[in-house]
Each structure stands twice: as structure tokens, then as C-alpha cells.
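Friendly challenge for the regulars: who can give me the C-alpha cells for this chain first? No prize, just bragging rights.
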Amino acid sequence: MMLYTLLLLSRRAPAFSPPQRVQRAPLLRGTTTAATPATTTTDVQVFIESTDCFKVAFYANYFKWLEYGLGKRVRAIDGMAYRRPAVLGDLLTVNTTPFEDGSINHAQTISRDGVDIMTVKRASDEEVVPRTVPAPIFGKVRTVMQHTCRHDDLDGRDGGLSLDACLRGFERSRSDFLGGPEDLSLLNEKGISVVVAGVDGLRHVTVSVNEGERVEFTADVSQVKTRIVLDQYVAVNGAPVCFARISCVCVDVIRGRPVAPPDVVSEKFTSKV
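First reply, four minutes later:
Bragging rights claimed.
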């Protein structure tokens, strides 16, 4: 069962407008156009294939939309925060601003009606080898999930494991830790959803993989106050492919507010340590 990306809210989308507009901040006295980075905006419609049964966008689709704005592959993400959910029918705007230092780094936001629903401190297409799985860490619960590579896990651009496949595997690994569909259904009956609140330190590289080969998903899970924090790793035949630190929160759906993890969640740590 999928984890839902913050608070189940919905709005109707305004009429479609052409993508790829360029906005520039007004010049101040004594400045030049070269000193003012241009912000590129790209419009994205939320269609049904990007949402779950509650009409809320799946968290991994935001990375696809960020790539639309970046105009190239996302290989590194730092400081991603989910603030509000995107829902079916939304018209979103991806705002992409290059760093002033002239590097390949960009700051990005995704907004709806002028309000940011996601912010990213740094996005880049630079390939940096992800973290490797460390020795077991005291106080963290480790889970390992084996997966057999399928044809739809492959990135047609280079034959490696796609970022989308890594993110979907992260989701399954998190769901398994939380008890799978049965325990998640119990939470939903109590009006509580476990949602992704942030992603940090994401790194993704191309490692050649073939259908039928083994892909290993490892997660080191801890509870930090009211957050569930997962250091998640992907490896193909022992070679690191992807890493991300993903923070989740429990949300009271009716009140629309974060709540402390209920016993059915907290006991996962005491029973598995």
C-alpha cells in the first residue's frame, strides 16, 4: 500500500497555459543582467496515472516533474520538503533557478496557484557514487528486501536501474517495515496516514543491470521524535545505485495535523531491535 504525500486536500486546476516561461527579477541599481539568475517555469498537469485511489499524487512523481523543469536527469537532491499534496486535476508550476555561483546546481519549487507545495534546496544532474550500506547501527532497525529486476525497472536511456524503480522499491520497503497492507489498513481505519515529509541526500548513478538480476533494497529505520527516518539503499550485484534519507510522519487525516506515531507503529522498533 502506498504512503500518501502530505494531507489529503484537493483543488480544481485552472486552464492550461503554455510551458517554459522565463521570469527575471527586477534589476536593482548598479546591477547587470548577468548577475541575476533566470528562473524557468514549467507547467505540469496532474493526470490520473500519477495519483492513488485517494486522488493524491504518488511521492515519486514529483521527481519526474522536477526533471521536466531541470531539462535533464535528476541525479542528486538535497533538502526536499513536501508541504502540501498535489491532487488529480491540479495545474502545477515547476520553478527552477540556477545557483548564482555558475555551477550545475539549481534550486527548485513546485507551486499551485502561487503557493509552494514542495521546495528543493539543491537539484543536480551530477552523478556521485551513493553511500554504501554500513555495518548495522545501534538503535536502528535494519530491513532487507530482495527484488528481481524486471523490464520496466530499466531506464531506456542507459540500461541502468531507473530512479523511478529505486523510489518505488523504497516505498515497498517502507510499507513492509510498517507491517504491509494489513497494518496500514488498521491505521487508515483510525484516520491516520503515514506520509513522506522530506527527502535528503539522494544520489543516483547508472549501474548496468539485466532482467532477472538481483536488486537489494536495504533500510536502516529510526524514530526521531514524531518522525520515522529511513536511510534507504539500493545495490545491484553489490554495486551501489541509489541512496536517500526519507522522513515520514503520521498524519491525522480529519484534523490535517501530524500526530505521534501510534502504538502499531512504535512497536515496530521495540519488536525488531
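Residues 163-177 form the longest helix (15 residues). The two ends are 24 Å apart (CA to CA). Your move, everyone else.
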